[in-house]
Amino acid sequence: MAGHAGFVEADNAEAIITRIEHKSRKIESLLKQYKPVEALKTALEGSPPKTRDERCKSANWIVVHRAIMAIKDVEGMFSSLDPEYYDILMKYLYRGLSTGDRPTCDQCLRIHEKLTERAGLGCILRSLSDTVNTV
Amino acid sequence: ANTLRLYLTCIRNTLEAAMCLQNFPCQEVERHNKPEIELKTGPELLLNPVLICRNEAEKCLIETSINSLRISLKVKQTDELENILTKKFLRFLSMRAEAFQVLRRKPVQGYDISFLITNYHCEEMQKQKLIDFIVQFMEDIDKEISELKLSVNTRGRLVATEFLKQFI
């Protein structure tokens, strides 16, 4: 089963990276139209959870990072973001916080506070305990 | 100051979620009870470690396991003097780790100070108070180091003035 998963990943890695590139173009166009919330939703949607491939995860992280940095109004974002995205957003926030880059960390800390208020501690705990679908 | 507040809030929330410890006797050796975060005997007992950076200089690593939690802090050090003061002051505290109970004698590699909280601590002490302690510690450390730096500079200036008076 591990071997089979290995094969699936090797084929899919290229497919996933192409998909991520499509996504990033779509997100750029959404950002130009000043729709940062839609951009974030698109970025979080196709997150490849089952891949172990670091390149796919990094590529997706770059895309999500772009969308997160473009958000100015955090409160407004939460009013239009569906709850199903909270968990995956939390995982990406922790990845952002681990980078150590000052503007990224500032933005991530701001969003983290509001997200915890909204989603509660369960969201944090799910991102800590999920060792299978890491971001 | 605003980022400090956000940074501490983030750490507080993460700690509240991560401090879910229960007793777990060692799986390999009978009648032994070890903090799993230190020994890492099995991947099923560990949660994802979380690194929260405020900026390039300050960060906080929180690692949890089933019966223990390790918090490592890197304090901001802007110049050589603060570097030395921080090292000496935190070494002073770490040497007296027995008195603090939750302090670790040696900081984790790459950090200035580490805390080790086990399920026994959570049973004896209140979880909220433990978290308050850690966050208060982080706030006070900065104040302490700047006070120390100020007193060192003042003392240095006084000594130099006195010494050089003889040459006037």
TrEMBL record, chain A:
Keyword DNA damage part of the UniProt annotation: no
Entry superkingdom: Eukaryota
Pfam families: P16-Arc (PF04699)
Chief location bin: other
One BP annotation, GO: regulation of actin filament polymerization
Cellular component GO terms held in the UniProt record: Arp2/3 protein complex; cell projection
Keyword terms: Cell projection, Cytoplasm, Cytoskeleton
Subcellular location: Cell projection; Cytoplasm, Cytoskeleton
InterPro entries: ARPC5 (IPR006789), ARPC5_sf (IPR036743)
Subunit record text: Component of the Arp2/3 complex composed of ARP2, ARP3, ARPC1/p41-ARC, ARPC2/p34-ARC, ARPC3/p21-ARC, ARPC4/p20-ARC and ARPC5/p16-ARC.
Function: Functions as component of the Arp2/3 complex which is involved in regulation of actin polymerization and together with an activating nucleation-promoting factor (NPF) mediates the formation of branched actin networks. Arp2/3 complex plays a critical role in the control of cell morphogenesis via the modulation of cell polarity development.
Entry similarity comment: Belongs to the ARPC5 family.
Protein name in UniProt: Actin-related protein 2/3 complex subunit 5
Native source species: Actinidia chinensis var. chinensis (Chinese soft-hair kiwi)
Organism placement in taxonomy: Eukaryota, Viridiplantae, Streptophyta, Embryophyta, Tracheophyta
Automatic annotation (TrEMBL), chain B:
Cellular localization per UniProt: Cytoplasm, Cytoskeleton
Keyword Cytoplasm belongs to the record: yes
GO molecular function: actin filament binding
Keyword Cytoplasm among UniProt keywords: yes
Pfam families noted in UniProt: ARPC4
Keywords noted in UniProt: Actin-binding, Cytoplasm, Cytoskeleton
GO CC, any one term: Arp2/3 protein complex
InterPro entries in the cross-refs: ARPC2/4, ARPC4
UniProt GO BP: actin filament polymerization; Arp2/3 complex-mediated actin nucleation
Stated family: Belongs to the ARPC4 family.
Name of the protein: Actin-related protein 2/3 complex subunit 4
